[in-house]
Amino acid sequence: MWDKILTRVLRGFVKVGALDLTLPDGMRQQFRGDAGPEVQITLHDADLPRKLLLTPDMALGEGYMNGRITLGDDDVHRLHDFISRNLDCADDMPWHRVIQATRAARRRFDQWNPAQRARANVAHHYDLSARLYDLFLDEDRQYSCAYFSRPDMTLDQAQAAKKAHIGRKLCLEPGMRVFDIGCGWGGMALTLARDFGAEVLGVTLSTAQLTYARQRAEAAGLSGKVRFELMDYRDVTGQFDRIVSVGMFEHVGVPHYRQYFDCVHDRLTADGVALIHTIGRATPPGTTSPWITRYIFPGGYVPALSEMATAVEKSGLYPMDVEVWRLHYAETLSRWYDRFMARADEAATLYDERFVRMWRYYLKASEMAFRNTRQLVFQYQLAKHPDSVPLTRDYLYRG
């Protein structure tokens, strides 16, 4: 029965590309839409058709991780290209609307991130082996979207360009105090201290990141200008001339948006400037893939601009500028994937082959989300007064 229902649903789902599906009993079914990627999928467990209908994201991700779903040529890139293109056309399907409504019902619970839960969520991903991140990130360990101001840039060059662009947006002057919310491994804080003369407090909830960032500050001779602490951003007191947050807002959780921007407002001086860099969606508010929530980023969510704007409006902050980066993260993820795959044997030694399949699946799913399903990056520049930054963007591109 489940095989027949799955076949019927897929006939309506496949509008782009082609799917050659081998069911658990060996029966092959083919589905074809307009020109696009062609994939071959084999299901090895009798229960998979039911799971794919009821919880498609989880069933497909777990099935691939566990080797119970296999692909022609093990081409995970083509799989996610195919899925993401068809998902972008699936809003009119009753089956898809039911799945989305079920996920929406859990949205506030999944994104409820008080301090204790936020710490556990961060540890799940960021306290993995430091050697893992060295396999695919740039030398500065920037784990967020790079800025490809030229198409021929290397990953390291594009990440340096991202930090410089943000530094210019902050309109820094030597001696200014900066609050770095979610400082990661310290690269942004160290750049702002070294290149702009800032004094930076960086906070993280990851013990691994804290240790690494402090070691870097000591090695660079910047311990007197940069301080890293294991703290929730909500526990920081005092005021700062500038606030920067890169790749952290995705972990705040929708129920906490007002609290977050109230915190930004309260921590800024009267003429202060904040720059919030986050993944976003060019769609109305939505939900997070259950597979991503369980295995990659528990508590994570990609915000719609409308959700951010609503919280900003109530905080008393002025939106000074909103810049949208479109395919920069797709290019970043493509480079991460290639670097990871070049050293996949080392990743398997650190963990196991199942972990490698999970990471491959995550990186490619993320890349194709930016290419095909209207995900992008927002840089939200905020201040308390409308004259806190220059009146045009010219200052960003001088020299």
Helix content: 40-55%
Low-confidence stretches: none
The overall average pLDDT, rounded, is 93
Taking all Cα atoms into account, the compactness measure Rg is 22 Å
Distance between the termini: 66 Å
Morphology? globular
Q: Count of DSSP E strands?
A: 11
Major sheet strand order: 7-6-5-8-9-11-10
Model description:
This protein has about 400 residues and is of the alpha/beta class. The protein folds into 2 domains: about 1-105, Nonspecific Lipid-transfer Protein, Chain A, CATH 3.30.1050; about 115-395, Vaccinia Virus protein VP39 (Rossmann fold). The chain has helices at about 1-15, 50-55, 55-65, 75-85, 95-105, 105-110, 115-125, 130-135, 155-170, 185-195, 205-220, 255-265, 290-295, 305-315, 330-340, 345-350, 355-370; strands spanning about 15-20, 30, 35-45, 70, 175-180, 200-205, 225-230, 240-245, 270-280, 320-325, 375-385. The strands form 2 sheets. Strands 7-6-5-8-9-11-10 form a 7-stranded mixed sheet, sandwiched between helices. Helix 10 links the parallel strand 5 (about 175-180) and strand 6. Helix 2 (about 50-55) crosses helix 3 and helix 4 runs parallel beside helix 17. The protein is globular. The N and C termini lie far apart (about 65 Å).
